[in-house]
Amino acid sequence: MAYFEHEGCNLHYEEYGHGTPLLLVHGLGSSTLDWEMQIPALSAHHRVIVPDVRGHGRSDKPRERYSIAGFSADLIALIEHLNLGAVHLVGLSMGGMIAFQLAVDQPQLLKSLCIVNSAPEVKRRSRNDYWQWFKRWSLMRALSMGTIGKALGAKLFPKPEQASLRQKIAARWAKNDKRAYLASFDAIVGWGVQERLSKVSCPTLIVSADRDYTPVALKETYVKLLPDARLVVIADSRHATPLDQPERFNQTLLEFLTAVDTTTQDH
């Protein structure tokens, strides 16, 4: 367990293995535990660094407005704190948004980028968008974190044999600081860097579950805006792909990272 300080906030991170630095960034309401099925496989080849985003896990939960740009600044501070140079960056869901933000702001810090079940913007455009957002916002304020966790577990892991994953998510969600969770949710809504995607110069892997919240078509659209990107669709998976299809996900990611590292060495 290690901590570093950025702008008066103590941020928790963990490190495993040796090799090219690889940062894994979790989603909303989660923590380093998002990556428990990845760390053993990835740390056999890489120096894996897993932070808790501000307001999450063992990191401080300051009473303030959060922003995706602020979360990204925390990551940049961690890269500098550990003197990593250029890193491989993987982000899941909200972590993917943080990764996109870092990639457009500081492209020179990345060797590669992997975005999992995420998007480069969350804009409310239609009346329906506003209504859906308002519904979710109201529910999240009304319900306890435990109740949200149970509902989420059922949605993410609906199969009978996924009972232990459902219980795990429900238990983890209940531990969230509600105020920090809502502040992080508010940071997502209205955020976007889609118009700046041409700045992402590194090789990029977009991973989409076939049954993610947002359709594969959405990912196909923004893959075209990235200079050097490809899309991999993982079958029989929902929003938490690293947990529901760990072997397939790990293999896909490792193949991508190996290809990037090999190309870099050749130059």
List the helices and strands and how they pair.
Elements: E1 2-6, E2 9-16, E3 21-25, H1 39-43, E4 47-51, H2 68-81, E5 87-92, H3 94-105, E6 110-116, H4 127-142, H5 145-156, H6 163-174, H7 178-188, E7 204-209, H8 216-223, E8 229-234, H9 241-244, H10 246-266
Parallel strand pairs: 3-4, 3-5, 5-6, 6-7, 7-8
Antiparallel strand pairs: 1-2, 2-4
Domain AB hydrolase-1: 21-244
Organism: Pseudomonas wuhanensis
Keywords: Hydrolase
Would you give an account of this structure?
An 8-stranded mixed β-sheet has the order 1-2-4-3-5-6-7-8, sandwiched between helices. The protein has a single domain, classed as Alpha/Beta hydrolase fold, catalytic domain (Rossmann fold), CATH 3.40.50. It has helices at residues 39-43, 68-81, 94-105, 127-142, 145-156, 163-174, 178-188, 216-223, 241-244, 246-266, and strands at residues 2-6, 9-16, 21-25, 47-51, 87-92, 110-116, 204-209, 229-234. The chain is globular, with a radius of gyration of 17 Å. The protein has 267 residues and is an alpha/beta fold. Helix content is 43%, strand content 18%. α2 (68-81) packs across α3 and α5 packs antiparallel against α6. Keywords: Hydrolase. Residues 21-244 form the AB hydrolase-1 domain. It comes from Pseudomonas wuhanensis. One of its GO terms (molecular function) is hydrolase activity. InterPro entries: AB_hydrolase_1 (IPR000073), AB_hydrolase_fold (IPR029058), AB_hydrolase_sf (IPR050266).
